[in-house]
Amino acid sequence: MGKGQYSQNQLDSTIVIVYLLLIAIGWSAIFATQYDGTFSLFDLSSNHGKQLLWIGVSGLIFFIILGIDRLFLMNISYLVYGLILLLLLSVFVIGAATKGNLNWIDLGFFKLQPSEFAKLATAMALARYLDTPQVRFNTWKQRAVAFALVGVPLLIVLAQGDAGSALVFFSFVMVFNREGLSNWFIYLGIYIVFISLLALSLDKFLLIGGIVVLFSIILTYIYVVLPRERTVVALIVGIMLVSIGYIIAVDTAFHSILKPHQQDRINIILGKLEDNKGVGYNLAQSKIAIGSGGPFGKGWLHGTQTRYDFVPEMSTDFIFCSIGEEWGFLGSLVLISLFVILIQRLITVAMRQRTVYARVYIYSIASIIFMHFMINIGMTIGLLPVIGIPLPFISYGGSSLLSFTIMVAIAVKLDSERLVTA
Amino acid sequence: MSNNADNRAGLLKIGVYIVAIVFLVKLFALQITDKTYKLQARNNVVKKMTVYPSRGLILDRKGRVIVSNDAVYDIEIQYSLLKKFPLDTLLFCELLNTTPEFVSKKLDEIKRTSPNKPAPIIKMVEQSAFARFQENLFKFPAVTYTTRTVRRYPYGGAAHVLGYLAEVNKKQIDNSVGYYEMGDYVGITGLESYYEDYLRGKKGFTYQIMDVRGRIQGLYNDGSEDIRPTSGYDMVSSLDILLQTYGELLMQNKSGSVVAIEPSTGEVLAYISSPGYDPNLLAGRYRGHNYSELNKDKTKPLINRPISATYPPGSTFKIPADLVVFNNGVHSPEWSYACSGAYYGGSVRVKCHGSHFLPNVVSALKQSCNAYSCTVFRDMVMDSTLGTPEQAYTRWRNGIMAFGFGNVLGIDLSGEKKGNVPSADYYNRIYGKGRWKANTIISVAIGQGEVLSTPLQMANMIASVAEDGVYYTPRLLKYFVKDKKIFKPSTEKHNVGIPEYFFPSIKEALAETVRSGTAARLKSTDFDFAGKTGTAQNPHGKDHSMFVAYAPLVNPVIAIAVVVENSGFGATYAGPIASLMIEKYLNDTISSKRLYLEERMLKANLLWAKDSIAKTNLIQQ
User: Fold this and answer.
1) Phi-psi region of B208 (alpha: psi -120 to 50; beta: other; left: phi over 0)
2) B41 touches chain A (CB under 8 A)
3) What was the pLDDT predicted at A2?
4) Which of residues 396-455 of B touch A (CB under 8 A)?
């Protein structure tokens, strides 16, 4: 089969099929969380009814995107990015507060969550920037621009109190890495996370003392092996001092910036706080729901923990509980496999793109979906702190569904035209 | 595109696999290895709820329901919901007839013990008050209720027979090997207690699904694990409730007992302890309050007199005493005796009612001659053919005890007293062995001295006479009914050891007592009965009036003993009451000629502590 024989509109069937399966699973799970014995499919007062509406809207938008010219998509990237930034900022003015996070705009019929669309817009803008002919992502100036494209929405979202969505922007680090940023940044990231965890779980004076002792041993060793390497010594001392400063900063931030309920959540995940009825209740109930599913689950509509409101946020952030409870390990395995297939396929598809725009864009959304997948499921099974972000395609919510649908639709659209020369 | 970039994309791919594998390992641990979540999930949503069986009804011998069950309501409050839905305390108190102080006290208690689930705040609210509250229930979102049952006594009588229910205590829970739980009701006294195991039935359980707010969402597993309650056995008691309540009316404002027995079966027809109380007082919401009021009452309405009060049986005791002497071959019913107005034995003198010639036991008993009974008793105890006085007395005592004196009869109530027929050992201890004779202890011959009997024992004795020497262990249970099957208790027949041929003369004496003897004024042309008066000397006050009787003369259907404390001679109060009850039982109605007697009995107020019944403080529900 020659290259030229590819149809201009050949959609990647794997992505489309997995996308449809995930949407279906999501809807059935949302239905199950509200099921009360009656069956009313199109009841718009119910979550599943509204979600069905959003699925319809998503389908429509999917087809509209498939019809849009890819160059047009590329060209409107900055515009979309700019509009979304404006929307994000407008939340401060007209947004309404929900659950302590100021992150949505009430449009009457729809509560628009601009932060959900910000990831999409950032992916488009970043792709657009890196696609600029003279940009090779190898000078610090260019990197600074790229970082800023990601950093600005990240900071706005963070300022709105939506730490979960802000965290998702870190998925672009994977994109940067893919585009040439040194692995050292990844290692540095891991080191920062490691030190942060230590700073949060241990007494700061004990930790600083430990670090001083550890670095002294390393310095002594280096002095014995490489007595004359002053730069290495200076570097290590520098790392030590920065680490100590960072630890103090983290400690201060934890105690003076984070709200008490956020402190509690972190303390619970670190095992410092055991409270199954208070803040840890969410996590405890989430694990009970999933754990009680057993190997094959209780069956669709037979989940007791999710149906009777024991799991909070069960149709949004904790939707995985419903699947774990009603479909058991087998269902969890299927769902996780579908996500793995989707993400792997997106990465593969990204790598076969001929334009930087398509490659960076698709790689970005693979990273974003991966980040959501990791944080959301990691949270529900107690591997990560309770951070409220939706499970793509599954969680209830119009903004999230629309945003991920557009992400996938553009990816599929770009991929289908990868052989078309501009 | 550089290989480096592809490698890095590969790194992300590996990262995705690693995350997926970590998730699956964790999920495997959560869902397959760790079984505790299943249990926790079940505990989360499944609430085991007790389904109370309906307690067995109690009917009287004619099938009238004397104890039934009524629905009452425990008002429950979930403390944790009060923050969101504050309690309108004023309205709550007004509707449920309680005080804000009580409510706040209970709320403190609930806050400490079980704030997160509905806990009872007011128990056993009666239907009428609850109906009013239920209309306003929507104003109290934190309030729920459960339905319970409470005992109701349509005839309001027989409190001491029936007993009452109360919440189980710690000891009863521990002893029940897991059956009782906090908040269960259990029979405390009377038949409710004695036949608790039959009446209570068997509790059932239902497994309900509750949502996170404690609202019931349906049956767990479609109820497949539920256990249905088994209702209790319905009890047909031996009582005739109309006779019972009539007797209670006659005994009003008097202290004493009435026990009526059907001689041919031992079934107790009436069992009255006076002063009594309306059993409805000790059922329901105000039980605790009413109990303490009744307990404070100086006339002691809570005492179960027919089995736990003992009296010297007085002259009624001459019946078994004389029979035992005749049976031991000392004298015969035809032995004649001339009473000189008193019994003289050494330094002992027992007064009689006057001097008279007594051709036989009939005239002795109908005039209740003390000297006669003392003489025949002495002649037996001192009869050398029967051995020493001690041996002869022991024979006499055994003969007396065969009538059921000096020991519990084994009626189906707890708390029965033995009474007393003093033993030879007892006298040996007091006077020294061989140093006492008939005259030393002569007062036992006429039912005084150390002899003590419960009213039940007196009734049992006269029943055994009515049956010519046979009695059946007195019983309040006729039979149980369960699922249309009848469960009859076995009857225990006892022989008093006196040959039948001694009875005609004794029975003639008892009939003569009513015709022309000490109870002649009770004579009626409408019915015949036989009886014996008694007066028990009471060192604390006026003598106790006693009367034992049976009727009719042939094939008796009722034997009765009446004790009226502090009322003087047997024929003044005890006799009339016994005769009225017999007439009521035989004829269903009191003849117009005797209505004056009935009226006199109803009006008589013999309570020494007249003002002490705190009736105004009792709360009827």
Assistant:
1) beta
2) yes
3) 39
4) none
Check pLDDT > 60 for residue A97.
no
Q: How many domains, in total, are found in chain A?
A: 1
Q: Which residue has the tokens 């729920």?
A: B144
B404 close to B464: Cβ distance less than 8 angstroms: yes
Nearest Cα to A307, choosing from B44, B35, B39? B44
Domain that holds residue A365: 3-181+258-416
Q: Which residues of chain A have a CB within 8 Å of the CB of B4?
A: 180
Provide, as residue numbers in chain A, all residues whose Cβ is less than 8 Å from the Cβ of B6: 351
Is position A273 within any domain?
yes
Q: How far is A72 from chain B (nearest CA, A)?
A: 25
Q: Which superfamily does B314-404+420-453 belong to?
A: DD-peptidase/beta-lactamase superfamily (3.40.710.10)
- The reply to whether ipTM tops 0.90 is no
- In B, which residues are within 8 Å of A333 by CB distance? 24, 27
Quick one: closest CA in B to A277, which residue? B116
Give the separation between CA A116 and CA A392, rounded to whole angstroms: 11
Q: How confident is the model at residue B2 (pLDDT cuts 50, 70, 90)?
A: very low
Is A159 domain-assigned? yes
**Distant-in-sequence, close-in-space partners of B513: CB < 8 Å, separation ≥ 6:** B365, B366, B368, B519, B520, B530, B531, B532, B533
C-alpha torsion A196→A201→A203→A206, nearest 10? -70
Give me the helix-helix angle, B241-250 and B574-587, nearest 10°. Answer: 150
Sign of CA dihedral A273, A276, A281, A284: positive
Residues 6+ apart with CB under 8 A from B299: B255, B275, B607, B609, B612, B613
With H, G, I as helix, E, B as strand and everything else as coil, classify residue A5.
Answer: helix
Q: Is residue A398, in this structure, part of any structural domain at all? A: yes
- What residues in A contact B37, CB-CB < 8 Å? 287-288, 290-292
With beta carbons less than 8 A apart as the criterion, state whether A78 and A128 touch: yes
Q: Which residues does chain A have within 8 Å of residue B46's beta carbon, measured at their own beta carbons?
A: 304
Is B25 within 8 Å of chain A by CB?
no
On the question of pLDDT at A420 being above 80, the answer is: no
Instruction: Give contacts of B38 with chain A, Cβ < 8 Å.
Output: 291-292, 294
B5 contacts A294? CB cut-off 8 A: no
Of all residues in chain A, what percent carry a pLDDT higher than 90? Answer: 39
- DSSP code per residue over A38-77: ---TT-TTSHHHHHHHHHHHHHHHHHHHHHS-HHHHHHTH
Q: What is the spatial distance between Cα B86 and Cα B29, in angstroms, rounded to a whole number?
A: 44
Of A276, A340, A344, which to mutate for an interface test with B (greatest number of B Cβ within 10 Å)? A340
Contacts of A137 in chain B (CB under 8 A): none
Q: Pick from B205, B187, B184: which is nearest to B74 by CA? A: B184
Task: Give the pLDDT confidence score for residue B31 in this predicted structure.
Answer: 92
- Backbone φ, ψ for residue B222 (5° rounding): 55, 30
CA B331 – CA B328 distance, rounded (Å):
8
Rounded CA gap, B451 and B317, in Å?
A: 9
Share of chain B above pLDDT 90, in %: 53
Instruction: Search chain B and give the residue with CA nearest A298.
Output: B38
Q: Which of A177, A309, A382 sits opposite B212 (nearest CB)?
A: A309
Place of tokens 């402190």: A263
- B374 and B350 Cβ atoms separated by less than 8 Å: yes
Q: What sign results for the dihedral spanned by CA atoms A26, A327, B213, A389?
A: negative
**Segment B517-551, tens digit of pLDDT:** 888 888 888 899 999 999 888 777 788 899 999 99
Query: Chain A: nearest CA to B33, how far in angstroms?
Result: 9
The mean predicted confidence, pLDDT, of chain A is 85
- Residue A248 inside a domain? The answer is no
Task: Determine contact: B26 vs chain A, CB below 8 A.
Answer: yes
Q: Does B8 touch chain A (CB under 8 A)?
A: yes
